[in-house]
User: What shape does this take?
Amino acid sequence: MKLNSLIISFVLLIQVLIVSCNQPSELYAEEYIQFVKDAKNGLVSEHKIGAWHVSLTYLPVDFFKAQQQLNLSQQQIEADSGEQTTRYFLLTIKSDEKEQALTKDLYNKQEFFERINQMLGSMQQQVQFISATDTIPCALHIFERNYNLDKEQHVMLMFDIKEEKLNPEFKIQWNDQILNFGKLNFTFNYKDIKQTPSLII
Assistant: This one.
């Protein structure tokens, strides 16, 4: 039994080393953005609820710099002076069907406007960072109004978290009281964040 355990451990170690060797250390802007958005790289945590996809993407500061290089965004994100403590996450809600997120299970028009107000205001109070030792509230959120021009709904979430609190893993919990998804936990591993390539400037 011990021999089998050693063999399995050795095989897993080799697989990890192969993945590490194949992963680039630097990427150009377009490749960098694709890397962050690719769920297999560990920066995206997703739930499938019926026809709905609710995902949360960890966005390094270099992600915004890459967007600026490609003129995809005018949003200016500056690195913190000293240690980087601001952590950015993008919440994305979309459906396999044509339904918009804000019209999910909608009963009347008044409820639609109440949802918008909640997304603009109280949603921040429904989101928190949870690790083995800490629970930290969301510091700021930005709800992106798309005026029904896009099926996807986006919310930027920001937390003030020191890097050591990300190790070894953490989750962002959304106790949704707006769209009736309930309590959703998005789990991330610190090693995936550390292994993210650098952006070639």
Observations:
- The mean pLDDT is 87.
- The radius of gyration is 19 Å.
- The domain at 26-199 is CATH 2.60.40.10 (Immunoglobulin-like).
